[in-house]
Design brief:
Keywords: Membrane, Transmembrane, Transmembrane helix, Transport. By secondary structure, the protein is mainly alpha-helical. About 70% of the residues lie in helices and about 0% in strands. The chain contains 8 helices and no strands. About 20% of the residues are buried.
Length: about 200
C-alpha cells in the first residue's frame, strides 16, 4: 500500500524506494528512542497514549488533504506511532501478570489482536479507493481514537483500583491457602497492584 500511496511524489529521476524507505527508518529510530526513554522513566501508558494521539494527527492529515507533501509528512508522523505501540503494549501486558505462563499468554493474546488489524487492513485498503484510501484511513483514525479512549479509561480505572487494593488485609485474605493456591491467584491476589509505571514485582512474597 505504501508505494501506491506515495507514488505521486516520484518521478523519472527518483526511485520509489527513495520515498518509501525513510518513514520506516524514522519509525525504527523512534521505537528505539521512545522505548529507551520508557525504560529510564519507568513509564509506559503515557507513551502509548501519546503514540495513539500522534497517529490520529497523521490520519487526519491523510483524510483532510490531497496535497502530496502534506500526505508524505503524515507518513512520518504515523510511522513512529505503531512501532512504539507494538513494543510498549507487549511490555505493558507482560508487566501486569504474574508467572511465565500467564506472561506468555498475555503477550500472545496481545499479538493476535494486533495481527487482526493487519487482516482488516487487507479489506479496508481497496483498489478502487486509491490513491487517497478514505475507507482505510478513516478506519485507522477510528481505531486510534478508540485506542486513545481505552488507554485513558484504563489509566483512570487502574489508579483507583490500586487504592482499593491497598486497603485490603493481604495476610487475612490469603490465610489458609497453600503456596500453589496463592500462586494461581495471579491478578486476583490481594497484594497485586496494576503496574502503570513500575516494572516487575514479586507480589507473592
Amino acid at each position: 500500500m505504501k508505494p501506491t500511496a506515495v507514488c505521486r511524489e516520484t518521478d523519472a529521476e527518483h526511485g520509489l524506494g527513495s520515498v518509501t524507505v525513510p518513514p520506516y527508518v524514522i519509525g525504527a529510530v523512534a521505537v528505539l528512542t521512545v522505548n529507551f526513554i520508557s525504560s529510564k522513566t519507568d513509564r509506559r501508558v503515557i507513551y502509548m497514549g501519546l503514540s495513539a494521539l500522534q497517529m490520529m494527527v497523521g490520519y487526519i492529515m491523510f483524510l483532510a488533504s490531497t496535497n502530496t507533501k502534506v500526505r508524505y509528512a503524515a507518513d512520518f508522523i504515523i510511522a513512529t506511532g505503531p512501532f512504539n505501540s507494538g513494543a510498549l503494549c507487549n511490555a505493558h501486558v507482560a508487566a501486569n501478570v504474574i508467572g511465565d505462563t500467564a506472561r506468555s499468554s498475555a503477550i500472545g493474546t496481545n499479538v493476535v489482536f494486533g495481527n487482526i488489524g493487519g487482516l482488516i487492513a487487507t479489506w479496508a485498503f481497496l483498489p478502487f479507493a486509491g490513491l487517497n484510501y478514505p475507507i482505510g484511513n478513516g478506519l485507522n483514525l477510528a481505531a486510534q481514537s478508540l485506542i486513545a479512549i481505552t488507554i485513558a479509561g484504563m489509566f483512570n480505572w487502574m489508579k483507583p483500583d490500586n487504592k482499593r487494593r491497598e486497603q485490603r488485609d493481604v495476610t487475612v485474605e490469603i490465610d489458609g491457602l497453600s503456596d500453589e493456591e496463592i500462586e494461581k491467584l495471579d491478578w486476583r491476589h490481594p497484594g497485586f497492584e496494576w503496574r502503570l509505571h513500575s516494572g516487575f514485582q514479586d507480589v507473592l512474597s
